[in-house]
TrEMBL record:
Catalytic center residues: E42
GO biological process: aldehyde metabolic process
Limits of the Aldehyde dehydrogenase domain: 18-266
Keywords: Oxidoreductase
GO molecular function, one term: aldehyde dehydrogenase (NAD+) activity
Family: Belongs to the aldehyde dehydrogenase family.
Name of the protein: Aldehyde dehydrogenase domain-containing protein
Length: 309
């Protein structure tokens, strides 16, 4: 979605809304800044999925697949960008992902009619570059990795233990590649997420009530979903938007009306009840009375009025 910002229009009646990457978002914001025009930017980012142990792994896996490869083969702003889990859970998670992916897309996913193409050759090359970086990343592939350049298709690809400083962990993937990172304990994932740019969405799969509360309280993201992927976007009573690098402003439902409306304050007063303490000279008595009103101290107000304070 993109509402074009045309400086020739009255800038006071123009409120651009842009959904895309941060590079173009900065251009839109810079153009609007010349006229002090507010903007709504929804920019995506590296949305993490934290997977705890002791959950219904099949349901979690199916929901991750639906949110990643089912959403335009990863080409969606709220698509999971990487998974964080513990070592004891990683192997089970990978096995479950493999099994469910084969159920959904068959043994040759490149031939599946349910798998979306990459949007164009430029993005196909970009994704290929992420996989082929110094052969360090491609060696971490545990599932998938097949490519069909002629038809602009890349199969669902799972990678385990990619280097943290690799391109695939620096850029928003926006495609069918899904790295899995291993942490010693699940709480370590919170610091890992917060050490990077703020994502548009953050996801957690757990049955642990305390962990849910810690995740919501400590992870800074545009939106948070517990035990599902991307479903918050479909709920019009929730605001949808980013924070920091993932955008500014929010919309959906009434929040869209609020985002593109100016809340103009209007106060009507009569000529009754004019207070002398507003006007000079500002005596100590007026000062005490003003302080009493500001602190809503009823007894101090009475004592001041009767000269006992």
């Amino acid at each position: 979605m993109f509402s074009y910002f045309n400086p020739a229009l009255n800038p006071r009646r123009c409120h651009p809304c842009f959904t895309g990457n941060g590079r173009v978002g900065r251009i839109v914001m810079a153009a609007a800044a010349k006229h002090l025009t507010p903007v709504v930017l929804e920019l995506g980012g590296k949305s993490p999925v934290v997977v705890d142990s002791g959950i219904d792994l099949q349901i979690a896996t199916r929901r991750i697949i639906a949110g990643k490869w089912g959403c335009n083969n990863g080409q969606a702003c709220v698509s999971p960008d990487y998974i964080i889990t513990t070592k004891d859970c990683a192997d089970k998670l990978v096995d479950s992902l493999k099994k469910e992916l084969e159920t959904f897309y068959g043994k040759n996913p490149l031939e599946s009619k349910d798998l979306s193409r990459i949007v164009n050759s430029k993005h196909f090359s970009r994704l290929t570059k992420l996989l082929d970086e110094d052969n360090e990343v491609s060696r971490k592939i545990v599932y998938g990795g097949e490519r069909d350049e002629a038809n602009l298709k890349i199969s669902p690809t799972i990678l385990v233990g990619v280097p943290r400083d690799s391109l695939i962990m620096k850029e928003e993937i926006f495609g069918p590649l899904l790295p899995i990172l291993i942490v010693r304990k699940i709480e370590d994932s919170f610091d890992m997420i917060n050490s990077g740019t703020k994502p548009l969405a953050a996801y957690l799969f757990t049955n642990n009530k305390k962990l849910k509360e810690q995740f919501v309280a400590s992870v800074s993201a545009g939106g948070v979903v517990i035990n599902d992927i991307a479903m918050h976007v479909a709920i019009h009573t929730l605001p949808f938007g980013g924070v920091g690098e993932s955008g500014t402003g929010s919309y959906h439902g009434k929040f869209s009306f609020d985002a593109f409306s100016h809340k103009k304050a209007v106060l009507y007063r009569s000529f009754m009840g004019d207070a002398a303490m507003r006007y000079p000279p500002y005596t100590q008595g007026k000062l005490r009375l003003m302080k009493a009103f500001m602190t809503s101290n009823f007894w101090t107000i009475l004592r001041t009025l009767f000269g006992r304070s």
